[in-house]
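DATA SHEET
Item: assembly model
Revision: 1
Owner: S.N.
Input lines:
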Amino acid sequence: MTVHSTREFAAPLANLAPLRAPASPRPVSPAARFEAGARIFSQGDRAGKIYRVKAGIVRLYRLLSDGRRQVTAFCLPGDVFGLAPEGSHHLFAEAVEETQLAVYPALEALDGDVMALLLGKLFTAQNHLTVLGRHQAAERLASFLLDMAARQGTGTRVDLPMSRTDIADYLGLTIETVSRSLAKLQQERLVRLNGARHIELLDAETLRGMVE
Amino acid sequence: MTVHSTREFAAPLANLAPLRAPASPRPVSPAARFEAGARIFSQGDRAGKIYRVKAGIVRLYRLLSDGRRQVTAFCLPGDVFGLAPEGSHHLFAEAVEETQLAVYPALEALDGDVMALLLGKLFTAQNHLTVLGRHQAAERLASFLLDMAARQGTGTRVDLPMSRTDIADYLGLTIETVSRSLAKLQQERLVRLNGARHIELLDAETLRGMVE
DNA sequence: CGGACAATTGATTATGCTCAATACTGGTGG
DNA sequence: CCACCAGTATTGAGCATAATCAATTGTCCG
């Protein structure tokens, strides 16, 4: 299994930069741009600010002291993150690729239905729980690919900005098992790889059957 | 692996019974009593009511079409459950042992800080995610026992009202592996079993080290 | 005391992990 | 433009952990 250290994942490049006023008519929250790999916040950091992904993608993860890593979520454009109980973050957040975020000073600054947002996150977490607890490797991959396809809204085409390591740590597998499971799905003509990070779902129906 | 069916878990004994007025001075919500094994609500049921455990214990779980089951949480006295997005439950809820619940007509009827409650549940789910994704069998057991001990507030004594099947489905293991992992912890003098469902934590420090 | 269910223990198998080697990819410089 | 290099991904062989199948043993009730 790939093992991680906090140091190895330290962010050398994070920078906060005010952005020009956007096209939107309403007043905007301050914004920030992060390089690929840049840390947004760390476990233990004082919490408060809320973030919404404008462009790019963010990984949220928890790190065990021996370096094992669990990615709890990938945040895509539109997604909100940074909510924490008791004033202190219990997750790391990092930009997977170059990313732009809207930053809100507090939960209250969000305009939408915060309760619905939280309930949605809870629902997602419970699904993920089922995948990790009760699905086999290929099924986990299928679940991940279907989820990414749905969220990207690009039909049967998925692209994966994150590395195999990120995917493995999200699915509770190793990179080798991710690779082999993808190969297996491809042999079964369920997906097709156009390069490692661009995947076409050939039989979404069967894939859905694998995860219920 | 133990495989479940919805039918097998059907609740023959659920009954709603108004309780006498409690000692508490403020007006009370209607209450209900459930036999061991009784269904409280099912996946797909119309949601709305909120429950708080008064006595007993409740399991929440998701069921896959082939019978695999993932228990997402055990609710102990004081815990609130039944929150669902979009008007429809996505989990089953059942009484593990004889259980009494306070029933609230809606989320708004809860007096406490609902936001903090949801954030807490999210935090718990993320912890559980890490356990399922990145811990070995014995480590999962350790995590579960420490959690139960902390929540029961009985120091180093834990009692387990739920069966090995429930524990296995909570930890993403089989009952045999749960049994063997307990035996292993016992051989290492970390715990001691007084009967299958009463466990003493002999070395909580080391157990904590196993889960970080 | 007996019966049914729950839990443990044993033997074997299978899935995914580890260690290792090879192949691919994208960016850089000759 | 192409060769090279570093990082990333794939593939292979053997191993370890947990699952499966099966047989006891233990426990709670009636």
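QC remark: Residues 163-165, 175-176, 178-180, 182-183, 196 of chain B lie near DNA strand C (CB under 10 Å from a C1').
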